[in-house]
Amino acid sequence: MDSQKVDMFIMSNGKFFESHQMNMVRERLIALDDSKWAMLSSVQLKDPTTTLIVSILAGSLGIDRFMIGDNGIGVGKLLTCGGFGLWTIIDWFMIQGATREKNMQKLQQFLY
Questions:
Q1: Are 82 and 61 in contact (CB under 8 A)?
Q2: What is the pTM of this model?
Q3: CA angle (87, 18, 39) in 5-degree steps
Q4: What is the tally of structural domains in the chain?
Q5: DSSP string, the chain
Q6: What is the span of the domain harbouring residue 21?
Q7: Per-residue pLDDT at 53
Q8: Contact in structure between 45 and 39 (CB atoms under 8 Å)
Q9: Average pLDDT per block of 10 residues along the chain, 112 residues long
């Protein structure tokens, strides 16, 4: 794939991934066939900042985990009122990393 397209993708979507993963993503995208560019451009990535805000406001209901696709953990948080508050507080610090991890999993479907 054209390195200019790859750099634009990384610049516009860099906040959705961990910084230590960006070199690997760039290398994989450059090696990727141009025919997959349309599919890659249409991937819906979750914003870690948005999930943090939802976690702060409604984390005890598990909505933050439902948003990123962790349905089992979301049901657990919902049934226990956020693990009696403890799980909710832990997620305030962990949800952005979990969101970036889920985004990376979505992207890896196209990279391999």
A1: yes
A2: 0.89
A3: 110
A4: 1
A5: --HHHHHHHHHHHGGGS-GGGHHHHHHHHHHS-GGGHHHHHT--PPPHHHHHHHHHHHGGGTHHHHHHT-HHHHHHHHHTHHHHTHHHHHHHHHHHHHHHHHHHHHHHHHH-
A6: 3-111
A7: 97
A8: no
A9: 89 93 92 85 93 95 95 95 94 96 92 78
